[in-house]
Amino acid sequence: MYVAVKGGERAIANAHAWLAEERRGDPAEPLLSVAQIREQMALAVNRVMAEGSLYDPDLAALAIRQARGDLIEAVFLIRAYRTTLPRLGSSVPVDTGAMAVDRRVSATFKDLPGGQVLGPTFDYTHRLLDFAEAAAMDPAPLGTPGPARVPHVTAILDRDGLIEPVAPDDTPAPDLTREPLELPASRALRLQALARGDEGFLLSLAYSTQRGYGRTHAFVGELRIGRVPVEMEIPELGFAIQIGEIELSECETVNQFKGSRTEPAQFTRGYGLVLGQSERKAIAVSLVDRALRWQELGEDDSGAPAQDAEFVLSHCDNIQATGFLEHIKLPHYVDFQAELELVRRLRQEANEAAS
User: Which keywords does this chain's UniProt record carry (predicted)?
Assistant: First the structure.
């Protein structure tokens, strides 16, 4: 947030003390532990990790508790902490084909190699309050993870030349967490900004593309959620070693494309990759990604918000948006007095002209 108030230290200290009391709640109730938040509010933890650009479930859970459940404030805490961490190196690009999937579904093929894995999802539940939860009843297990390695669905279309090929790109991706956003942005930078963008904002943009503001008719080629190993190349060893494992949500959409003078009719891709289990956001990112690719695919600009890279990338970050919005709570006495004097002078001039 913007910090510009110089006076009132005692009032601020009292506000902090009151905040601590409110955060704790009724002392008669047990304190909510970080482990409980991490294990039982996993989707909130995943969102904070994704938008905070830091994969650490324990720190994300701590931030949620400290922020009293305000996820944007929790994202702010995580990003602030992230800036204090040293950069030790870069990991090797993860192989999502080797993902140990917990969930994997396709809207384009019913029978696909590796099978459909429904996994833990709200998709097939009734949206009814489960009062058994209030009685602290433990839910039944939701099933076992899927196979260790399953191919991507789009490989089926790629084999027959029905979808645009993926061009290899060895160019190092820019780091948005260390360098400010520059426009025009490459697709790698756009995907990075979208991955840490506000889920609600991206959801609305993605919805707009489905309603015609972007002219993209998408099918979910594949949505998969699971864990992938993270590897890092060690110069002294001359090869990569596994340094950990993270959970990812990946979505590939298949979109219509009528072709051009140089390209035959084929499907095009939209792509979304998000930290943690965040399938709604992964789908939204893939839809917005496809909408932003209109120029490179030789399509017409319909003027839709989702196709305007400057609009999307400059407004999807909830931390920047929150800081700019909430700073208007701070004193603007001088600015307002100037505006007030201007309005009074204009009204006086108007009255004199009318008399």
Answer: Lyase
